[in-house]
Amino acid sequence: MSESIALLDATKIEQIKSHAKIIAASGLVPDHFAKNPQAIYTAIDMARALKEEPVTFMQNVYFIGGRAGMYAQYMLSRLRRSGAIRGTVRYRVEGKGDSLAVTCSAVDAETGEEIFGPTVSMSMANAEGWTKNPKYRSMPEVMLRKRAVTFLVREHYPDVLMGFSTVEELEDMAHGSRTVRATVVEDDAIADLNAKILGDGEPESQVVEAAEAEVAR
Amino acid sequence: MTILLDMPAPEYRSLDAVGGTALKDILPPHTPLHFWARHVDPSREFKETPAMRLGTLAHLAILEPERWEAEMIVAPAVDRRTKSGKEAWAAFLTEAAGKEIVSAEDAALVESIAAAVRSHRGARVLLQGAATEVSLYWRDAHTGVLCKGRMDAVARHDVIVDLKTCQDASPKAFERSVANFGYHIQAAHYIDGYEAATGARPRAYVWIAVESSAPHGVAVYAADAAMLEVGAEKRAMALEIIAECAEAGEWPGYPDEIQTISLPGWAAY
Predict the structure, then answer these.
(1) What are the backbone dihedrals phi and psi of residue A61, each rounded to the nearest 5 degrees, phi first?
(2) CA angle, corner B44, sides to B39 and B50, nearest 5?
């Protein structure tokens, strides 16, 4: 059984801190972890609780609005590995356009019965404001499938999610409820400026003029 | 949706819209009543604290050095209790008409701060050729609330630069300042305004942090993605509360009901 970091002794905590530093420097985890050893430390704790490898876990969760979300694909992988279902899930896709609807089902390993999650549809997506997420316009079936499998898992196999939301749910909430926009940190922009700072230290005049022109438009 | 390059600060302050530094005042632990008193009450007065004045003067000297030279005048060290001192002061006031009077002590401090920023390679690259004191005026698309913002500088390639005077410019201390003063909320506000006014999404948001005490350490920091996401969430929450209160015409303070409180954790043992 996993042991929470909060219950560990000082030696083990130091070991995990060292582990977190190694992981941060490994290049194997996304930037939102690599730049934040405290988040890695916590992620190691979460991974223990989920019985996952820390690096795998960190590659498959993302923070939106301060909440950790699990990618739907990862959730499905966890469901299959849990042995709770036979094979994988199935999707029933009906209708087109605004009447598009998806239902996810799976064969329960214990009973052998096919069980169904709640049907999700574009009308539901519209009503809940999910469609403010532009992905519902560019790939509606894919988005509804992700929602449908999440509904199935949350209703019948909640242990797989361990209280997590999926990244897709959090994105929909962010798009639907408020005018929260994606981040604007472009590593290229910072790298370009740092190159300038560490290089000749003087920006090229024509580039500056271009920036001023953009501001003035 | 407007972007204004030469708007004087008083004119910007008088714009009837929600600015980036006001948003945090409506979020817990504050209440809509606090926000109303500071930013809506028609009889409110603009009170400039010494720290705010130092920040304003430093901004002028760093971002608009020509205006600093032209519009500021240093007060002479005279004893205004004596007759000769009074005469010297009266002559100075005549000379200073239309200018901002700054004490010799403040002027020296501001010059030192400005020199420190100018001598910092990163800050210099960011500011050189940048458009400074860029005002924004737009309507929030989700809530309809009128918004305003005044970016200290816009560097090349759509990078917003925010100059902050602070006590401690070390990374951890400045992170705390960001959280305590809601700089990340302000950042999210300006990012939204910049896009609304220009159609371009900023590529980064950078702070130049300069210590107000000698040796006036300077550091430049970029907000990371998680920080800006939290800032955007809080900004959205603040605007929704503002919109609801404005529509209802009610700006409630703390709840009427009795609330149970506990000792803070650090005082419990």
Answers:
(1) -125, 155
(2) 85
Query: What is the set of domains in chain B, with CATH numbers?
Result: 2-75+104-247 (3.90.320.10)
**Smallest CA–CA distance from A178 into chain B, residue:** B236
Q: Quick check: A7 contacting B, CB < 8 Å?
A: no
Residue A41 CA to residue A216 CA, distance in Å, equals 45
What is the average pLDDT across B193-216?
92
CA atoms within 13 A on the CB side of A212: 14
Q: Number of residue pairs across A and B with CB atoms under 8 Å? A: 123
Residue B128, Ramachandran bin (φ over 0: left; ψ between -120 and 50: alpha; else beta): beta
CA closest to B155 among chain A residues:
A211
Which residues of chain B from 214 to 233 reach within 8 Å of chain A, CB to CB?
A: 222-226, 228-230, 232-233
Q: In chain B, where does DSSP find H-type helix?
A: 9-14, 32-39, 50-63, 65-71, 83-95, 104-119, 121-127, 171-181, 183-198, 225-248
CA distance B81 to B88: 11
Alpha carbons B61 and B244: distance in angstroms, whole number: 40
Q: Is B124 on the interface with A (CB under 8 A)?
A: yes
Q: Is A215 on the interface with B (CB under 8 A)?
A: yes
Q: Which of A94-108, A159-173, B199-213 has the lowest mean pLDDT?
A: A159-173
Mean pLDDT across chain A: 78
pLDDT of B266 over the 90 cut: no
Can you give the pTM of this predicted structure?
Answer: 0.61
For residue A211, list chain B residues with Cβ-Cβ distance below 8 A.
Answer: 129-131, 154-158
